[in-house]
Write a structure and sequence with these properties.
alpha/beta, Rossmann fold, six-stranded mixed beta sheet
């Protein structure tokens, strides 16, 4: 049955292409939503960038036919910008949420046989719609259930003699089960026999292979559990261009990413420098709220990165005689910036660490990853249980979207870090609070 979907502004800004995701149904955008998008389009933020994309897209569709009468979307669906004639010149003082509810009620009364569904990422609007007897849903085209998210690792039992063969040769034919490229395997001896080994799936050769290891430590950092061994293997593998590290606070995501970045840049000289970027949340994306020049504005947001770098400098030794982050920036080895400024760049011959990626939308993640040029390696860290962005959740954020889409790609590797190693207290806090 054909349906009428009424879109909120937050859905369009979350995904400007969302109008094409409703199959052969009718997509309706109230004019109040257009007014709300218009307020955002001048912002120099990701929200402003997406708002401008929405405006351009709607204007290009307008050239085919009046949006008031409906424009075919090419997939059997139709787009309508809904504006009643007597409200065309309304300055729009009503709140957009109220207008969406009013429009939904009007369409429901006019077309009683066709279901009307409000699509919004605003939980309060969904509650208000339900209370008003209207149907409302979240935008789910990019949702991945966190409970079903790829973990990047499995356990597998093998005969003791096969385990010994792997230890001697460093290679073993992949068992008869489907594995993703670069999936990690804990091999255990079967029948209760002692012994285990860590391996990685090489789907090109159809073998499990031995992990890469740091010769001594990874810039003063030693792995403390099997997941950290897996992470170090992916970080040191030249063929893996995208590494995603997922885990709760204290599991070592950012520490391992930055330790590997310094190891590969300074000691192994595979990259020219390290770029660290993170989204700015939760007190607002506009750096103008803070005093000082750009470096002073960034300092409070990037302090967690500085803390980790300084810990590594203490653990692994200074770099070119430099003992602090500001000195590394001056010599060009380290660049730290908000993701707001990464759009438009082409980044080559660097290792790029994207921290706190759970606060990004799928479109923002796409924007970041498509900035990577040749000879660049990208490490993306995230904790879907700690989200500050009000327009994404554990199932719809850009980090989980990225993990899911790149699962089958040989250039990517994903590891879920499960055990907190910061301190016993931090681990208890992560589990109990």
């Amino acid at each position: 049955m054909r349906k009428n979907y009424i879109l909120d502004a937050n859905v369009l800004i979350h995904d400007p292409q969302s109008i094409f995701q409703f199959a052969d149904n009718t997509v309706i955008i109230p004019v109040a939503v257009i007014r709300e998008i218009d307020r955002f389009k001048k912002e120099r933020t990701d929200r402003g960038y997406n708002a401008r994309n929405v405006v351009r897209l709607l204007d290009s569709l307008r050239g085919e036919r009046s949006l008031a009468y409906g424009v075919d979307l090419g997939n059997g669906g139709k787009l309508i910008v809904y504006c009643e004639p007597d409200r065309a010149l309304d300055p729009g003082n009503d709140h957009a949420d109220i207008e969406i509810l009013r429009v939904a009620r009007a369409i429901q009364n006019a077309e009683r046989e066709i279901p009307v569904i409000i699509v919004t990422k605003d939980m309060n609007l969904r509650i208000r719609a339900d209370a008003a007897g209207l149907r409302a849903e979240d935008y789910e085209s990019d949702r991945i259930q966190l409970s079903e998210l790829y973990t990047g690792q499995i356990e597998h039992e093998v005969a003791p003699e096969r385990l010994e063969e792997f230890r001697k040769k460093g290679s073993l034919a992949i068992p008869e089960r489907e594995l993703s490229p670069n999936e990690y395997v804990l091999l255990r001896a079967a029948n209760g026999a002692p012994g285990s080994a860590l391996a990685r799936a090489d789907v090109d050769t159809q073998h499990l292979v031995r992990l890469h290891e740091a010769k001594d430590t990874l810039w003063g950092v030693r792995p403390l559990n099997k997941e950290q061994y897996f992470a170090i293997d992916a970080l040191l593998d030249d063929t893996v261009k995208l590494v995603t590290l997922m885990g709760k606070a204290g599991t070592g995501k950012t520490l391992l990413a930055l330790a590997a970045a310094m190891e590969l840049t300074v000691r192994r000289k595979r990259y020219r420098g390290v770029l660290v970027a993170r989204p700015i949340f939760p007190l607002g994306r506009d750096l103008g709220y803070l005093p000082g020049d750009i470096s002073q504005k960034l300092d409070p947001w990037m302090k967690p990165i500085d803390d980790t770098i300084e810990f590594l400098l203490d653990a692994g030794g200074p770099i070119k005689g430099q003992h602090d982050c500001s000195a590394l920036r001056r010599v060009g080895l380290l660049e730290v910036q908000p993701l707001t400024y990464i759009r438009g760049r082409s980044i080559s011959n660097r290792i790029v660490v994207i921290d706190e990626a759970q606060n990004l939308t799928p479109l923002e993640v796409k924007t970041v990853i498509t900035r990577m040029g040749r000879a660049a390696k990208t490490v993306v860290t995230g904790d879907p249980y700690q989200i500050d962005n009000p327009y994404v959740d554990a199932n719809s954020n850009g980090f989980t979207f990225l993990v899911n889409r790149f699962r089958s790609q040989a250039v990517a590797s994903h590891i879920e870090l499960r055990k907190g190693e910061r301190s016993p207290l931090a681990e208890l806090a992560a589990n109990l609070l």
